[in-house]
Specification:
Elements lengths: L7 H5 L21 H23 L2 H4 L5 H31 L6 H24 L2 H26 L7 H26 L13 H17 L4 H33 L6 H23 L5 H24 L8 H23 L8 H40 L17 H24 L2 H30 L8 E2 L8 E2 L2
Antiparallel strand pairs: 1-2
Helix pairs in contact: 2-4, 2-5, 2-15, 4-5, 4-6, 4-9, 4-13, 5-6, 6-7, 7-8, 7-9, 7-10, 9-10, 9-11, 9-13, 10-11, 11-12, 12-13, 13-14, 13-15, 14-15
């Protein structure tokens, strides 16, 4: 059998085992492909919606970020885009990486419904600043996060022993629960609650209202901006950056045909990021002069992560890096810029001026769309083709010739989209720092142009579900003559 021509090799082309490695293949236990795809598509829709909002209202980024519309758009990106795709990716990747089936696909489908309704409602309530209704939709988001966490935890419990990846995933679930609880407390703190005793008091309702008042009283001790910023760091650092580092430790070696170089360094990096997340949350919340120390703990973990990632890339066996991996690595290089900016903003005593306020906006924009956003767009070029290939072609292995993953989309459009995204980030950040709406609009239009190329490629990939491109396996003619033989 000629494995170089075998259709089954296509599925493994982007994730072969290293020699002697016990790591998983991408042909392990895979859930129904429509499950992660629905999260991915909702995430892409949310990203497009958020960019369209910024194109329409560039003045929002030209002003200070503490206003209801920026908060609403931020949650479009964070909950609608980032959290949706992280959820979908983990539903696909956790069973593959841990080589065990997902605990319950039914729970995951319910999670999707609850997630979409809750995120949509939360964004709408942020836009009109209705905190009481926001809390109701936020409770729905908490329910979805609980379903997600329970599903992944039950899947993790099937695996014997802890690995760097399973520890990282468990840590992400902990911080996800923490940030959801913190968000609900924030909504409770900005609402008012009255108990109508004339019609009788429901004990459960009374207990709930007393709990909400207690949360309100507790958060009243802290400065409102400090509460919002601590909540934001908990989500971005503890959930999205940590999950990026965790997944990178498994997927990057698979895609570049390499292996982890120093497991101790990888473990230490995740412990430091976890410790830095907790320290940063507390320091920012309390406006402590120890904020730079907390920032240095997180920076130390990210530095070790960068060193390990560099070592993996340097010792890879696949010499040519495809553009999906290049986009991902570019996003990780932006982590250095983000860390330096964060450390600068953590210095005690910085006065709140128009420029320092725009530096804070730049910090958040770079974290969400520069680091996390670009990383996800790069990895989607690896994840979505595999999902679609598996659904459209896995049953055709050995029967017909199927396309390779990179043949399912246009590499030229991918390169054009990646360049446009980086240019859009640069121009938008320049506009934010200068408080210049026209410049911000130009930058967000570049981001929108990048999404057009991305959407075209995604549509092209999804087209294989409708019109699979199957070709007969070409016969091979022996050099010495004789009967024809088909390569299988």
């Amino acid at each position: 059998m000629n494995t170089a021509s075998s259709p089954s090799s296509v599925a493994r082309a982007d994730a072969p085992r290293s020699s002697g490695s016990a790591g998983p293949r991408l042909d392990g236990p895979v859930p129904d492909v429509t499950l992660p795809l629905r999260f991915v598509l909702f995430g892409i829709f949310s990203l497009v919606s958020g960019i369209v909002m910024l194109v329409a209202r560039p003045d929002l980024l030209a002003a200070y970020h503490y206003n209801q519309h920026i908060v609403a758009i931020t949650h479009v990106f964070v909950l609608g885009f980032l959290l949706s795709i992280v959820s979908g990716a983990m539903y696909q990747l956790v069973p593959i990486v841990l080589e065990t089936p997902l605990h319950s696909e039914r729970l995951a489908r319910w999670h999707f419904v609850v997630h979409v309704v809750s995120v949509t409602g939360m964004v709408a309530m942020f836009w009109v600043w209705n905190m009481k209704q926001l809390g109701h939709f936020g409770s729905g988001l908490a329910l979805g996060a609980a379903l997600f966490s329970w599903n992944i935890i039950r899947t993790l419990l099937r695996v014997r022993g802890w690995t760097v990846v399973s520890f990282g995933i468990a840590s992400v679930l902990f911080w996800l629960g923490s940030v959801v609880i913190a968000g609900l407390a924030l909504a409770a703190a900005k609402s008012t609650y009255e108990l109508n005793e004339s019609s009788g008091v429901n004990p459960l309702l009374a207990a709930t209202l007393n709990g909400l008042r207690a949360a309100q009283s507790f958060l009243a001790r802290f400065e409102p901006l400090a509460v919002m910023h601590s909540h934001a760091h908990l989500g971005v650092l503890g959930v999205f950056i940590l999950v990026t580092c965790t997944i990178a430790y498994r997927l990057v070696p698979m895609f570049v045909i390499g292996e982890m170089q120093n497991p101790r360094r990888a473990w230490t990096s995740l412990w430091l990021i976890n410790a830095g997340t907790a320290a940063t949350f507390l320091a920012v919340l309390n406006q402590s002069p120890l904020k730079p120390v907390a920032g240095l703990i997180s920076a130390s973990g990210l530095l070790l992560y960068g060193l390990e990632l560099h070592a993996i890339i340097r010792n890879r066996r696949r010499k040519t890096l495809d553009w999906g991996i290049r986009m991902f690595l570019t996003s990780q290089s932006l982590l250095g810029v983000l860390v330096l900016l964060g450390l600068g903003l953590s210095r005690p005593g910085i006065p709140l001026t128009p420029f320092s306020g725009q530096l804070e906006t730049t910090y958040g924009f770079l974290a969400i769309l520069g680091v996390a956003g670009l990383a996800i767009l790069g990895m989607l070029y690896k994840i979505v083709p595999f999902l679609v290939w598996f659904a459209a072609y896995s049953r055709q292995i050995g029967r017909t010739r199927t396309p390779a993953l990179h043949e399912m989309y246009s590499t030229r459009l991918q390169i054009l989209g990646g360049g446009s995204w980086l240019a859009g980030l640069a121009v938008t950040i320049a506009g934010i720092l200068a408080s210049h709406p026209a410049c911000i609009r130009a930058g967000t239009l570049l981001l929108a142009a990048s999404l057009v190329t991305f959407a075209f490629n995604i549509a092209r990939i999804l087209g294989h579900l409708v019109h699979p491109q199957l070709q007969p396996i070409a016969p091979r003619v022996p050099a010495s003559g004789g009967p024809l033989r088909t390569t299988t």
